[in-house]
Amino acid sequence: MHRTLDRHIDICQYVCHDGPVPDLLPLAADTSAGGCCGTPDAGLDADAARDVARTFKALADPARVRLLSLIAAQEDGEACICDLTGPVGLSQPTVSHHMATLAEAGLVTREQRGRWAYFRVAGRAHDLVAGALAATLAPATATPTPAGGAR
Length: 151
Description:
By secondary structure, this protein is mainly alpha-helical. It has a domain at 46-140: Arc Repressor Mutant, subunit A (Orthogonal Bundle). The protein contains six helices and three strands, in the order H-H-H-E-H-H-E-E-H. The chain has helices spanning 2-8, 46-58, 62-73, 81-88, 92-104, 125-137; strands spanning 78-80, 108-113, 116-121. A three-stranded antiparallel sheet has the order 1-3-2. Helix 3 (62-73) packs across helix 5. The longest helix has 13 residues, at 46-58.
């Protein structure tokens, strides 16, 4: 039998074992009913997870985070789309796309003035981001930390 197998199996994959078959290990306990650690009973439902993901997705691009911070840093709290292209080094259509994503997520508001669009950080942007993070980590945040992360 060994001669027949070694013609069809690469020598690196074939190991001859002539000894007795070892005893089998006992089967693990059946965990199909409740899982090994129990079923999580809390967490976000599908709609809440979709909302949180939309917020995180809007902030997942470094260019969008930079655009948001540039607008927030403006003295009057708003910026024209034409003033945002230079600092991030992107074309106006690309910046417009990023700003549309931020607006859809509720992080900025848009006001059309003639041919240009002006953006402001939405009044609820801070609460939206903080709420998304808190909702995601709610079970893990038993002890709240003060603002600034200091303990």
